[in-house]
Specification:
- It contains 13 helices and 13 strands.
- By secondary structure, the protein is α/β, with parallel strands linked by helices.
């Protein structure tokens, strides 16, 4: 802990606290305590002397406060303990500052809703638990810089997610996101009101721009994380020879993502669902790779891009999406999976997790997003029951 130590000689003070330095050419850091003394000229003896001395003291205290705050921030980054300080300061960070920390997990909400449904909350919470050392960012189109939402928000899911130390919720400002990418020209020309699939198309574009600019992993808001993904540059096979864009990861400024953005604009057709999404990823992958069928649970690789087996994220294929909301005699173990895609587009929010139903989805919620399960499902049903009794 930093300490401010005042020295007896007039006009001087010292700051004592931890400091880190590199040990020669080694990559490790060594920390100790430094003592910095700042000398100030002795004030002249005049009638205003005492007032000037008090003012100087106040200035020194203010400078000391800012210095200590900066040191704490730097130490937290160097020590890998950034998120232990986040609850007090994360609401003052900008999207760029968080994204520049690197290796973010990015989620997008391109509707205007401000209350994330339980599946969205579960997806974000499960990622926050699996990737505790990485920023988890939820961009919401419905938020603006003037929107006042905090831990005491009336939106239960928003409050739940905001309380997690490595979860950040920011407004999705597309014009800013598309700056310095091929997508900006397209965005300035397109008319959202005339686009049949605008919610999906704008999401397809935003995820490409964010991953190209900052790197990391993009995930759909119906993906439940169950173990860390070991790959840095990867696409997720939905089936043999066909790529999803519901989850993918790349380092910043990767050529494949830039090429995808250029093709997005060149081949744009908003009337065809998925043309700028999974079909875009598939056709771009085919230009550089000779795609073959998967056999067993092996992954494919091409030009340093891993094309991950369907078992990694889609062990239950989309025609069987309803099985997540059924009771299984014996639940699958998903030993070959990193995350599970629950196909909410196919579901259209018709089926939901119900406490006590013993469905596969309920078991996944209990295991990987227990706070969402307890706060948004169990407690909601208790509240609904109480309200029904009061009505009677």
């Amino acid at each position: 802990m930093l300490q401010t130590v005042w020295v007896s000689s007039p006009g001087s003070w010292a700051l004592r606290g931890p400091a880190c330095h590199r040990d020669g050419k080694q990559t490790s850091w060594k920390c100790g305590f430094v003592r910095t003394i700042i000398q100030h000229p002795r004030p002249r003896h005049d009638t205003k002397g005492p007032r000037k001395a008090r003012m100087l003291t106040k200035i020194q205290i203010c400078l000391c406060f800012f210095f200590v705050s900066g040191i704490l921030y730097e130490i937290s980054l160097l020590s890998g303990c950034f998120f232990s300080y986040v609850p007090m300061s994360k609401h003052f960070l900008t999207p760029e500052q968080v994204l520049n920390l690197g290796k973010s997990i990015i989620f997008l909400e391109t509707t205007d809703r401000l209350e994330p449904p339980p599946l969205v909350s579960c997806s974000v919470e499960s990622a926050a638990r699996i990737y505790q050392d990485r920023p988890i960012i939820l961009f919401m189109k419905g938020l603006t810089n003037d929107t006042v939402l905090d831990l005491n928000s009336s939106y239960a899911a928003f409050s739940l997610l905001s309380s997690m130390k490595n979860v950040f919720i920011f407004p999705l400002q597309m014009e800013t996101v598309f700056q310095e990418t091929p997508l900006l020209q397209w965005y300035n020309q397109v008319v959202p009101e005339q686009e049949k699939n605008w919610v999906h198309v704008s999401s397809d574009a935003s995820r490409l721009a964010l991953i190209w600019k900052y790197g990391g992993i993009y995930m759909d808001t119906d993906v439940i994380s169950i173990r860390p993904i070991p790959e840095e540059s990867f696409l997720a096979a939905q089936k043999s020879r066909f790529s999803s864009n519901g989850i993918f990861g790349f380092p910043a400024h990767h050529k494949f993502i830039w090429d995808c953005m250029e093709n997005f604009v060149l081949k744009y057709n908003g009337k065809i669902w998925g043309n700028q999404g999974p079909f875009l990823m598939t056709r771009m992958l085919k230009t550089i790779c000779n795609l073959t069928d998967f056999k067993g649970t092996e992954d494919h690789s091409c030009q340093n891009i891993s094309f991950l087996n369907p078992q990694r994220f889609y062990p239950i294929p989309y025609p069987a999406w309803g099985r997540y909301y059924e009771v299984w005699d014996k639940s699958p173990n998903f030993n070959h999976s990193y995350a599970l895609h629950l196909w909410n587009f196919m579901n259209h929010n018709r089926k939901v997790v119900v406490a006590g139903s013993n469905t596969l989805a309920e078991k996944l919620y209990k295991a990987y997003c227990p706070t969402t399960y307890e706060d948004l499902i169990q407690n909601a049903e208790v509240r609904d029951f109480r309200h029904s009794e009061e009505d009677v």
